[in-house]
Structures are given as structure tokens and as C-alpha cells.
Specification:
The protein is an alpha+beta fold. It is built from 17 helices and 14 strands. The longest helix has 25 residues, at 327-351.
Amino acid sequence: MTALITPRSMRVGDRDIPVVLPNRRDPRLHLAAVIITVHIIGIAALGFEVSVPQILVAIVFAGMIDVGVTFARDGRLVWPASGMLTGSGVALILRYVPTGTGEYWSWDGWYWFALVAGMSVLSKYVLRWRGSHIFNPSNLGLVVVFLVVSSSVLEPLDFWWAPLDFWMLLAYAVIIFGGVAITRNLRLLEMAVVFWFVLVAGLGVLAASGHCLIATWSTTPVCGESFWTKLSTSPEILIFLFFMITDPKTIPEGRTARVAFAASLGVFTTLMIAPHTLEYGAKVGLLAGLVIWSPLRYVFDRVLPATSAEDSGVRALVSRLAGPTGPAGSFGRGLVLGSTLVVVAAGIVVAGSPARQPVLAPSPPEPIVSVDIDASVLPRVTVDPSVATIDMVVDDDVTSGLAMMLAENLALEGEAIRHADVSRIAIADGGERLDEIQARLEDAVTEGRRPVDHYVFESLHLRAANETEGQTSAALAFVAAGRVEQVVHDPLGTELDRTSRPFQATFVMRQLGGERWSIVRVIEG
């Protein structure tokens, strides 16, 4: 991405230091503008879990290293277009898990952004072959840190961002129109399109085989058609194909070789995604696919050397694969092509077997709830904007239904303790809450005093839960306030004691099977 520059200099003591300023024709500036625009839309409207200081630290730190290394090597002060682009790309993909939506000015985890951005920039000066860096800098830095650091600390940007509203459409428009304009100007659009078509076809094979993925933005596993459509239209994958695989310094030189490189990369990244049941693994697999494939560009250049512009690209690749004409040649080409497609499809299906949906397994029956709740006594549920980060429709019917299930679950807990009936807890609870209520039940049976809590809600506020317990399906949380009356019974049902107190608590709920939501954690206060 070399741009025309106007030579300048600055005098320091008795020395003239050449200065290279930014040029508005530099494609790197256009690409940076697209990425920064996506950052702004994401933070302001799409609930990106990244802060302004984290982004600025990545950009500034990468730029400073780029300036310092260039000056030490060449004695010039060069505007760090490449370094700042690398930093902004790192900040777009990297997420520090403790950072939540709306924490615009948080400095938490800033050192991770500095580390990854700095490591990424340095890689292009250290890992070189034949005068050029081998890997896309931001791609390599991200993959290394994701493989080394726990997913509870750092993770990549999600495949799915938000519902398809105005802001999401605007983000798509910026990515697609910006990506098309930049790659077309660099004559790399053909490469990006070929990669996308091959990847989408590979994901289609996975989807047809019953592939499933657990994602933190979905309350249930993402399977089959939903898996295919969500990943095929993922803005993260669009960013990957427009702005990562098309780095001119890390791809083959000839257009034909580039098309072959993109097509084979599409197959390889599909295979890298296929084995993973968690979105985290699939995202890292996608990014790692480019790291592994990048050094092979020298092989593609050797096998498919650059030719004239008129005899290159997809048409030239098809022509080379076609070989000699005639019936025998046509039959042979068809046999080879058909066999290759069958082998590739079979390989994708086999690679995806660990994440296969149990297609023939019947859905679990919905449990019979043995408590009656008066819906009229429940307050109207208010909904936090963070709920929009989950791929589900949330309207008044849904929120009132969730509130009813919360009240039913709490009533079932009380009935389970009163009657020493573990089966009722299994309907109401899961995870940490299940263990807690089971322990209470055992204590009640041992002590002969069975305390039953009766909740009266005065307010209910629904939000996306931050307590994702690692790479699990999405959870929702009710921030609730009201009064709780505790009635203590003996084993025969005789009332022994009664107390009342105000309460404030957050009830985290998750779908653990079927349509029902269970309480998995309660945070007091």
C-alpha cells in the first residue's frame, strides 16, 4: 500500500531529518477511516464491549513503535500509517472480557491492547522473508495472544453483533462499501469475493450435517440453518475477508495465484472452524487459518506465476485447471473435479463431527410446574439496552413470561424445601443455584426446620447477564427489589416462625433445556 509522498525535512541541531507526512491517497488511511467508523458505531450504538482508552492505547502504542523502528533503521520520521492501522485492527477484534457494554472510558486491561498491538507491529520487522513480512501483523498478534491467554481474560469480537436495525445496517454499509471500494482500488476484490463464496459453501456443508455452536449472544445452541446464515453474514467475517486476507504484502503477487490462494484458504478456514463447539474456538480457528496459510503464498507464486492483467484471475485459474480440450480431457477434468469436491465435503463433515447436533435425539419434555402464580401482582418489567446484544426477540409477552418463570422457580424452591422434594428443584434451578438450594434442603431435613421464602416483587429490570461462566450460552438477569416473607415449618407442616424483610437481588437465568428458563445464580444486593 505505498502512496505518493512529498519529501520534507526537519532540522535537529546540525542534522536534517527526512519527514514523511500522511498522504490522502494512501489506501491505509482509507482503511483506517473505515475501521474507526466501525469503532464509533459499535461503541455508540451496537454495545461493543471495548472502551475508548483501550482503542487509543492500541493505536498510539503501535504507531510509536512503528515510528521508532523506522527511524532507527532508516533515519527518517515516517507517519506510522501501517502501525496505526495495525493498532486499530487489533482494537477492533480484541476484547478484554471484564469490560462491559457502556464502559466508554474504562482503562481496565489497557496493557493487553498495548501488548498485542506492539507485538503485532514488531512481527513485521522481525518475521521477514525476501524483503517482506510473512504474516498480517494484527492477525498474527491476535492469534498468538488468544492461544496463550485464557479465554476468561481475552476473546475475539463476536460473529453476531446486534439485531438488524438502522445502526447494524449502517455498520454493514460501512464495512461492505468501504471494503469493496478499497479492495477494488487495489485489484483485490476478486480475491475477497472468491474467499467468501468458498467459505459460505463450506459452512453450508457444515450446517447441512447438523453443526452446532454455543455462543454467548444466543440463549440456545446455534445450529443448522441459523449457524450457516449467522456466520455467512457475520460482520467479523466480512472484516476478515476485506481487511485481513487482502493485505498486499502477505498474499501472492499474481492475480491467478491470489484467487487460488483465497479459494484454498476458504476451504482451510472452514476445516479450522469445523471441530469447535464453542464460538471462541471457531473465531480463533478462523484467524489461525490465515496465520498457517500465509507462508504458502510463496508456493502459489511459484506454481501460478504472475501473467498479464488480461490473462489472470478467476478466468485464468479455470483455464489452467481445464487443461486440454476433447472428450477424454473433459471426462478426466470432470472426474477430478467431482472427486475433489466430494473429498473436500467429506473432510469438512468429518472435521465437524465433534460439534454435530444430535439430530435424532428427541427434545426434552417441558416440565410440569405445580405452582400457581398470579400474574397481576407482578410489576411491569423494564428492559435494559444490553438485552439487544442477545439474538432473541424481547417484547412485552416475552418479558412477562420470563417474570412468571422467575416467580414460579422461586415458588418451586420453597415447595421443594417444605416437602423435601428434590425433583421440584430440578425444574427451577441449575448451576450454582441448584447446589445452593440442594444444600438448604439437606440442612432443613437434618434440623427439622424448613424455611420457605415467599417473594413479593416491587420492581423487575431485565438485562443481559455478565455472568457467562466462560464460553456458554447467553444468560439474562432480573435485577429485582421487593419484600421476602420467610415462613418456617416443621416436617408435619406446622408453622413455627414468620419474618419479613426487604430484599434486592439479581437473579441470573439461563435456558438449560427446552423452552424453560432456570435460575443459575443469585447475587444479593
